[in-house]
Design goal:
The complex is a heterodimer of chains A (237) and B (210). Chain A has eight helices and nine strands. Chain A is of the alpha+beta class and 237 residues long. In chain A, strand 6 and strand 7 form a beta hairpin. In chain A, helix 6 packs across helix 7. Chain B has 210 residues and is α+β, with helices and mostly antiparallel strands. Chain B is 33% helix and 30% strand. In chain B, strand 10 and strand 11 form a beta hairpin. The radius of gyration of chain B is 30 Å and the shape is elongated. Classes of the chains: A alpha+beta (237), B alpha+beta (210). At the A-B interface, helix 1, helix 2, strand 3 and helix 8 of A face helix 1, helix 2 and strand 1 of B.
């Protein structure tokens, strides 16, 4: 009796699995209207980036391409890729997520965004000032200072027109769970003060379309100095 | 026992099948009513064609012959061709420091300029014509200088590529400083990389500095 029940249930399982597989095969054969629309939206987004890149390639200044599906930040100058940096993680706040999902707002990204203000947060604020003075008197011939500067945590908070804010965060990821926990706790503590990187991010998360890119500190330092007021970026959701 | 396992499997399969469909539906945007399948297919075909043309136009912007890219933050020099990196080496770029003349009337800021440049001239065994700041920095201002003080051989290495306004890509006696920001604005390269750069470039080679 039990064996029979098991056999019946196994048959039910197989039928259900088969049922789940059949519609997807059918969909692959003939794309539905929604699937066609999805492809159309994707192609329009690609088209917008290509049009913008072509227009920007005629300028003398470098520009940035933020490719969220590819998780990549690319610095270009006259159509030539200067550097391409993979993002470890990309975070979109609520407003950014809404825009990325809303296909009726596809035109939002068609025109490049212009950088209006940049803020620079160093984890060790005295490091840069001290180093400038040190470099003035004697160049960094051992490389130790350069290495400290390259690897120190950094945040470039870039405000663009149309309420878009881009955060390029450079941090060496914590090695252990305990370290991660400590970092989270420190971030929370610092976020209580708006003058800190975390505090500024907390404010921007509430009021702006915020996209946060996590990458190596050295990569932030090689990209961010090229982004001055008036620099243009192309965004692809 | 077997009955329970079977029931659990059935339930899991049911949830799995339902879950996948739901997931698929939630990610796909729903088409507006005015767009039928035929219209969408036409638009897709048009966009595919247009995107292909745009990609081709963008592709034409990338130099066909080797070009140089310099990262002044990481102090790296690259020679690339058609997306391939032919040279990837350490270099030294501008120290971003300032020199003031003893009387305080002249100032120089030593940084490597960013932007697009071209190799304007190529020189073998270049001679360095010491500029005014070189004399001040060496604390030789007011001294009686010999021609060999003003025109120095060997300090620029075996080759120099002129980029204009006194900026060059050249070799160095100070190979241990490669990878550091220690120069007066020129880009210093190690002997092996310089040899390759010399072989791969010509007058007119584009140089992208960022």
């Amino acid at each position: 009796m039990r064996d029979r029940a098991v056999r019946i249930l196994s048959a039910v399982v197989l039928i259900l699995i088969a049922l789940g597989a059949v519609p997807s095969t059918a969909q692959e054969d003939a794309p539905s209207r929604d699937e066609l629309y999805g492809e159309y939206v994707r192609l329009r987004a690609v088209n917008a980036v290509l049009v913008a890149r072509l227009a920007l390639s005629k300028q003398e200044e470098p520009y940035l391409i933020l490719d969220i599906p590819e998780k990549e930040v690319r610095l270009e100058l006259q159509g030539v890729t200067l550097t391409s940096v993979p993002a470890r993680e990309i975070e979109l706040n609520r407003l950014a997520r809404e825009i990325s999902r809303d296909t009726t707002r596809i035109g939002f990204c068609e025109v490049p965004f212009v950088l209006q203000q940049d803020r620079w947060f160093e984890e060790v604020p005295t490091l840069a000032a001290k180093d400038t003075a040190a470099v003035m008197s004697s160049p960094d011939t051992t490389g130790a200072l350069a290495e400290r500067i390259r690897t120190a945590p950094v945040l470039a908070l870039l405000r663009f027109e149309r309420n878009l804010v881009l955060a390029l965060r450079g941090e060496i990821p914590p090695a252990s769970r305990l370290e991660r926990w400590k970092v989270s706790l420190r971030r929370f503590w610092r976020s209580l003060r708006s003058s800190t990187a975390e505090g500024a991010l907390r404010v921007e998360r509430r009021r702006s379309i915020l996209i946060e890119f996590d990458m190596e500190p050295a990569q932030v330092r090689s990209i961010a100095p090229n982004l001055t007021k008036g620099t243009k970026i192309v965004l692809r959701f | 026992m077997m009955l329970r396992i079977g029931a659990a499997c059935a339930l899991a399969a049911l949830l799995l099948a339902g879950g996948c469909r739901q997931g698929g539906d939630s990610t796909a945007p729903s088409a507006p009513a005015h767009m039928d399948e035929e219209a969408l297919q036409k638009r897709i075909a048009g966009l595919q064609k247009q995107n292909g043309q745009l990609e081709s136009r963008l592709g034409k912007l990338i130099p066909k012959s080797p070009y140089i890219v310099i990262n002044t933050t990481l102090n790296r020099i690259y020679v690339r061709k058609s997306g391939e990196t032919l040279v990837d080496g350490a270099c030294s770029t501008g120290s971003n420091t300032e020199l003031v003349s003893p009387d305080g009337t002249r100032r120089w800021f030593f940084s490597t300029p960013r932007g697009v440049f071209k190799v304007l001239n190529r020189r073998k065994n270049p001679v360095w014509a010491v500029p005014e700041w070189g004399i001040i920095e060496a604390e030789l201002a007011g001294e009686e200088l010999l021609p060999e003080d003003l025109f120095q051989r060997g300090v620029l290495g075996k080759y120099a590529l002129d980029l204009g306004h006194g900026y060059m890509i050249h070799g160095t006696l100070f190979q241990r400083f490669l990878g550091l920001q220690v120069t007066h604005g020129c880009v210093r390269v190690g002997d092996e990389d310089l040899e390759q750069i010399w072989q791969l470039t010509k007058i007119g080679t584009p140089v992208y500095i960022f």
